[in-house]
Amino acid sequence: MYKQVGMLAASSAALMQYGVAMAQTAPAQDDAAPTVVEVTGQLLGKGEARANSVIDEATIKAQPAGLDPLKLLSRVPGLQVSSSDALTGSFSMRLSMRGLNKEQIGVSVDGIPNGSTLSNGGTMPTRLLDPANLSRVEASQTAGDLGTPSNQALGGYLDFRTRDPSKQRGAEIELSGGNYGYHRGFVRIDTGKSASGTSAYIDYSQSGVRTWPGDESGKNHRRHADLRVLQDLGNGSSVRATVSYNKFSDNDYDAVALRAIAAPFYKATFEGNPDTDGLTDTWTGNPALDQNYRGTRGINSEDVLAHIDWTQRFGETGKFTLKPYIHTQEGNGWFYVPYRQLPADGKVYSAVAPGKAPTATVQECYANQYQRTATGALVPLAAVAFPAGVSAASLKAAGCPAAAKYAMNPQAAWGDREATTRRSDNDINRRGVLGEVAMTFGGNHRVRVGGWYEHIRRAKIRNWFGVTDPAAGSAYEESALYSITQDRHYRSNTAMVYAQDRMMFLDERLELDVGATYQRFRESYASPVEFAGERSLRVSSGLLPKLAALYRISDELEVFASGSKNFSAIPDSVFEGTAAVDARKGIQPETAIAKDIGLRWQRNGYGLGISAYDIDYRDRISIQNGNPNGDIFSRDATTTFANQGGISSRGIEITGRMTGAQYELYANYAFNRARYDADTPFEGIHAGDPVLGAPRHSAFAEAVWRPAQPWRLAVNAKYTGRAAGTYGDVVNTVITGGPATYPREYMPAYTVVGVAVSWRPRLGMTWLRDSEIAFNIDNAFDKRYLGGLGAELTTSNPLTSGRYFLGSPRTFFLTLRSRF
């Protein structure tokens, strides 16, 4: 990885020098803007035989500089996107599409699969591209185009496309600032197209922002660079090579509860105070309090993505594409806890012997709290032995965990208060290739045959480091490693093949797409400190038919219908740690049957689209038993899984656009009825319950006015209806003195308003092609709302039921863009 980064930096310096030297004499860029008709057609998905929406480059450029590309999707009907700040977010970023979450949606960047979208141990698409280079986002709400590379796309697909090198040499800069310490700088140098057909660009950006609650002690920093070289081979053939590098660190936001009644058990509740997530900004020296200090939790990640896109035309209609790629990631997530989780055998690394259980651990919040042998092992007793004057209640009051079945030294022998930084290191190496051959036969049959193969090696290691001085801060040394409780290694292989015949009839007014996909997934898993040996699974999708039809009634009106069967490989959680040791034999992959039908009308700059859909998500992998307060990724997990139930999602979406010489109006509305279709008792789900985090009603509207050539003013509003936050009425078996049951929670409905003003001055300088000053306001009325649900954190237990993320507050942005 570091060799690749070094080569990228060297190339960056050379191209920077070249671009600056050429900027003074570069001719004006002749980038023709798309016509109003084309823009309206793209927005509605015109010409596609399935539900589809496109966000074009003009819309992208009107957003705040550096905006996470996922947040653009709030404009698309049926999609809900949020994070706890106006720009980005890792842990707090939430995405749902027609009732399915981000881990059930396929994502790619320039056609290259994004992989998992988990915040830690996965990759969000913003890490693989720079927002300033984004040219197009295509959202297929029901099913992606045949051959889209994903093994998690149960309910739709997202593809983010970036700009190619310019044909003319020059440079671009982007400078942006805002409140909460937001700052961003971006520079791009284009070489222009040479006589031999070669063009290239290199860019670099750096940005940062602080968290908004309290004293803004949390920070988010990002550095990103891209290098792309494009070789025109003539006759429509080309080769492009791209390398992207991204490094970021992030102190994100914590989940909150909704009800004030939950206050004793959560750091913060929305009803109690909607301006905080309960994390603190001041170090106290007391680990029980400082475990909530924002700087003690966060994520680091360093990603490199390199890929080649070779397109070769042959014959009159033939096309061959080949896309090899490699993606590497090194990162970690860290968390501060007010104790040491010590191994009972005194060893840092304790491999499990065949047929034996993993080594037990005990939590110690003061030094010398437990008795040890001369070898450092903890001595187990038949029952807990407390020293004089110490009880379980006093330990709890002191912020200590339960004593467990270990002898304790006299209290007078206890040492200083202890604390630990628990760091989860992850390493990913993805290598894959996509290939396709397409050709037209007989004038009306466009046949595509292709495949995708990907091999992934991943590691997740949970290390425990003793904090040097908890009274002074959370600093630790690498030499202070005292325990490794996870050493997880995964190897997975995905293979997919597909074929499609796109048939045209009735003078190309009728298009029929008949195709199918087959996918096979295999994974092996080992963690020597959790179990002996290796676990593995192998599943296949079976034949996944994908059918679609488009009929052009006239040049202005078309109707479409599509149906597809989609597949998701089995997630890691079903066989990690001590989970699902027995149940995994019977686990089957999740599938979904997706259908949609609709019509589109377009005349000049006016357009209307209406679509109805039905998604039948089957074989949902659900929790069956276990400790609801246990960590599913630690040794205390006794959870098992089974295929039980699913989700039924039905709805309708309406999109309209009107344009004139000085105005644009765009609006959409989505109705979604997403329900669980079977009981899953341990989770507290009953058939017919609403799906968590899926609002029934949502809408988006934007009005744009151009009073004069250099000016653009826009106002938009996003409405999100109330959505279920807990599975249902939960019987209270945990909280003494609490209510007999906790009723189902709903996240309140909300509307946020955005404002954008831009000015393109005509400076009359031949060397300056274009400049723009833009001012954006996100959440102009400073609405307090719950932006998303931490579904992966929620169980049917009242203590962990309903965990939400605060929505982003009012945020200002000022941006200068120039092209030379």
Automatic annotation (TrEMBL):
Pfam families: Plug (PF07715), TonB_dep_Rec_b-barrel (PF00593). This is TonB-dependent receptor. GO terms for molecular function: siderophore uptake transmembrane transporter activity. Residues 51-143 form the TonB-dependent receptor plug domain. Transmembrane segments: none annotated. Belongs to the TonB-dependent receptor family. InterPro entries: Beta-barrel_TonB (IPR000531), Beta-barrel_TonB_sf (IPR036942), Plug_dom (IPR012910), Plug_dom_sf (IPR037066), TonB-dep_rcpt-like (IPR039426). Residues 1-23 form the signal peptide. It comes from the Bacteria. GO terms for cellular component: cell outer membrane. SUPFAM superfamilies: Porins (SSF56935). It is a multi-pass membrane protein. It is found in: Cell outer membrane. Residues 421-779 form the TonB-dependent receptor-like beta-barrel domain. Keywords: Cell outer membrane, Ion transport, Iron, Iron transport, Membrane, Receptor, Signal, TonB box, Transmembrane, Transmembrane beta strand, Transport.
